[in-house]
Design brief:
Layout lengths: L1 H10 L2 H6 L20 H12 L3 H22 L2 H21 L1
């Protein structure tokens, strides 16, 4: 693993350079010994917060929020893009009315 870190440091990867005490200027030559690591409970809480988001419902609510602006943008397009979008929008509107 040390060889891998040495190679990365040689390529100038910033994450490796910040931990190398030899490569720091004399004013910055402090080890990262006293850097606080997050507690296990903090990591678990963060993981729980990220993974417990209902992605489908959040996506649909944001899509509902942005739909009017997206439709206005689609209608403002011109040329061949406009023709393609009109065909797609007609299919979407036709499917919406046939379901109801």
């Amino acid at each position: 693993m040390a060889n891998y870190h040495t190679k990365l440091r040689g390529f100038g990867v910033p994450e490796m350079m910040c931990n190398a005490v030899k490569r720091k200027s004399p004013a910055e030559q402090k080890s990262a010994k006293n850097v606080k690591k997050p507690r296990k409970a903090e990591l678990q809480d963060e993981f729980h917060r990220i993974t417990m988001v209902h992605l489908k419902s959040k996506f649909m609510s944001k899509l509902d929020e942005y739909t009017p602006r997206l439709l206005a943008l689609f209608h403002s397009k011109g040329g061949t893009v406009e023709l393609r979008l009109q065909a797609i929008l007609l299919k979407v509107f036709f499917n919406d009315f046939s379901v109801c």
